[in-house]
What we know:
By secondary structure, this protein is an alpha+beta fold. It has helices spanning 11-24, 40-44, 63-72, 89-97, 107-114, 116-125, 141-151, 177-191, 249-266, 297-304, 308-316, 321-325, 396-408, 419-427, 429-433, 440-450, and strands spanning 4-7, 27-33, 47-52, 77-79, 101-102, 155-159, 169-171, 197-201, 207-215, 221-233, 236-242, 270-278, 284-290, 334-341, 353-354, 357-359, 366-370, 377-378, 385-393, 411-413.
Amino acid sequence: xxxxxxxxxxxxxxxxxxxxxxxxxxxxxxxxxxxxxxxxxxxxxxxxxxxxxxxxxxxxxxxxxxxxxxxxxxxxxxxxxxxxxxxxxxxxxxxxxxxxxxxxxxxxxxxxxxxxxxxxxxxxxxxxxxxxxxxxxxxxxxxxxxxxxxxxxxxxxxxxxxxxxxxxxxxxxxxxxxxxxxxxxxxxxxxxxxxxxxxxxxxxxxxxxxxxxxxxxxxxxxxxxxxxxxxxxxxxxxxxxxxxxxxxxxxxxxxxxxxxxxxxxxxxxxxxxxxxxxxxxxxxxxxxxxxxxxxxxxxxxxxxxxxxxxxxxxxxxxxxxxxxxxxxxxxxxxxxxxxxxxxxxxxxxxxxxxxxxxxxxxxxxxxxxxxxxxxxxxxxxxxxxxxxxxxxxxxxxxxxxxxxxxxxxxxxxxxxxxxxxxxxxxxxxxxxxxxxxxxxxxxxxxxxxxx
Length: 451
Ligand code: ADP
């Protein structure tokens, strides 16, 4: 096992990795930007290295600075968290060249999974259903029109290297396609290093359902059930839960079997998430692989009892899954996560600032993953996640009741947060009955906000 690891991230996920490392008896090195000098990940790591100014391009995304910090502190491995360098194959490669273990997949697999249309192809070959679409990036509007005509409108244009819902456009007719393609290409070019756009069939009101996987370096793959992530705003997840209220044991088993085969064929290792959309007929279609730990990983931890971050570190140290998991995976009860963001309740614009008062909820079945504290500041430079509130109950009804009381006792003063919105969603009858899809927030927002 490693003696010391570096965490190339900030905020709640950096603290989450520190917790896992402490549980394993591993020393930790935090890196931080000048804006994060007073952050909890700096305080609770064993060592901390300042790697640059607030702007992430010059600190958390600066590969030479992160590698130097690992070298001067003799860290043997780097955990990238999510976001920042977590899906950067070049970073994984430089770690390898510097003799530092990257806690993630190989650079080749990271690269392949980072290009969505490549990942689609690999999954399709392994027998996982994918939506009809263009096999490669689109080279012209004419080509896009041809594919769209074959598939049938509506179609969705998506950035090959996409993330965070950027670079996507829904196209309803041939007339609007060329313009929307140009827009998507511009947006993708500005946001990602690869400007490529591909297209696939658009599902009007899908559910977003994803499967959590763990794979070791010895060719063993396990799937830890699914998460339901359909409560989204502008393609960004707001509430996640496990298991999905609509997943049948049979579909779960079939999907798990197909994924095990596909991921073995790729040579996948590390924790990872395979995302699907479910159409109105209840059929699942692959959309992408996230080759890293995800924001919503705690709901899976709560129903399986498996520490996913500890598992990632043990996998990177060469351990076998059978030793890490100690027996078959059991799904127990129901877990829900609310992402508490610093945002304006009406405009949803990020609202960073100083937290002047704070009460974190607790009690049986409640977990809060956060890096905030009273008088701490949410800086404007990074994402607006304040905390993740996770609850676990024997069943979904108990989990919802616990989420309501935990949200009622969650007090954040000094900034606006999404707590009031989350609380109203918990009261919604369709949410309570499991009757929702990714259009839920857009359809219901006005009526939810009135009550
Ligand atoms: P990103 O990597 O930018 O998050 P994803 O491919 O994961 O993009 O898609 C994010 C969200 O966009 C999905 O959860 C879903 O709400 C919507 N979406 C993506 N592809 C489709 C599609 N083919 N049909 C309908 N909605 C889609």
